[in-house]
Write a structure and sequence with these properties.
It is a single chain. This protein is 56% helix and 4% strand. The chain is built from 6 helices and 2 strands, in the order ααααββαα. The protein has helices spanning 9-22, 27-38, 42-50, 55-61, 86-102, 107-110, and strands spanning 74-75, 78-79.
């Protein structure tokens, strides 16, 4: 089992916020991307952050968007679409979306609409 599975989502979320804000994006846009991927509304996301839900439990509760399989590309030298472990693939989907947001990609394209 990978260490990230037992890491609290709340421990990584501020790093995501810092990353996107440093590139001129907002925490609200980040939350919108997370909501698209996981199906969590603002209240559910805040609850997971407050409860320090692990990544494993965070994605176990998530209702992954049907278009999540359209997320492709490389994160940390690994092709997202080739990750075999379903949980790790979901985590990499989120990482890829955060990267795209930070790189200035339009939300319409990030959300695969």
């Amino acid at each position: 089992m990978h260490r990230i599975y037992s890491t609290a989502f709340a421990a990584v979320y501020p790093l995501y916020v810092t990353k996107v804000e440093r590139k001129g994006r907002t925490a609200a846009e980040l939350d919108q991307v997370i909501e698209w991927l996981t199906g969590f509304d603002d209240a559910a996301l805040k609850q997971h952050l407050a409860e320090h839900t692990t990544f494993e439990d965070f994605f176990a509760d998530a209702d992954l968007h049907p278009n999540a399989t359209l997320i492709t590309g490389v994160v940390c030298g690994v092709r997202v679409q080739e990750v075999e472990d379903p949980l790790m693939r979901r985590i990499r989907y989120l990482d890829k979306l955060v990267d795209e947001l930070a790189k200035g990609r339009p939300l319409e394209k990030i959300l695969r609409t």
